[in-house]
Amino acid sequence: RLRPDLVLNYWLHPEGSAALRVARALGHPAMVAARGSDLSHIPDAFARRLVSKTLRGADYVLTVSREMRQRAIDMGVAPDHCAAILNGCESSVFRYRDQAEARRELQLPADVRMVLYVGRFAEGKGTNELLKAFAQVAGSSPDFRLAFAGSGPRRTQIEQLARSLGVRDRLLLPGDQNRRQVA
Hints:
Layout: E1 7-9, H1 15-26, E2 30-34, H2 37-40, H3 45-57, E3 60-63, H4 66-74, E4 82-84, H5 99-106, E5 113-118, H6 127-138, E6 144-149, H7 155-164, E7 171-175, H8 179-182
């Protein structure tokens, strides 16, 4: 009923594969986009074949870096059917600020060292690895804190892992933040 002109999907597999099939069934062009691990960390040979098939089957492929564009080309995408559109930064929001002022605003002690993760709490985002690495460093650095800004299905697991690693008291979970709050 929507009668789209184009089917666009921002994940290569399995969603991109499904989007490609839907587009073909409707007789429409399909575009897929690779935004990170879906192209740079393919888990096994089987998944690699499926990702490659999706890339080659799409009418156009977008990536967020030149390196990822080259990976897509190496997997069979014609160079003239692929473009890198680099992520931008809103410099009026994300700019250098006085650290002491920012810490006062966030009610953080001046002597605390922070690591900040901003993103979705989902499988494949590296949150477990970050927590484990933090726990190793935190043992010798009592002034170290880790903040996870965002939300997602793995929030409970993040808290449980932090507790089991003995760093739950150093973990800040402020929830979803708009871009000004993140800045």
